[in-house]
Specification:
mainly beta, three-stranded antiparallel beta sheet, 70 residues
Length: 70
Amino acid sequence: MCEKCYSPSIDTRNESVCNNSLCGCKIKICPECGRPMKIRNGQYGDFWGCTGYGIKDDQCKVTIKVKAGL
């Protein structure tokens, strides 16, 4: 489900794309667990971090470096 307009979204291997053509929202998907990822800021700059990081019993620590221009 789209976080912006709450329309259904279509999941691909790397992202979830809003089905509403007027919205066009895309969310990066964790390649390890399938949860949404969000941009976080760390000591060495911005990176994509899995939203499952803070889950106590099912933690996911996947991170992906943010490419320049994104």
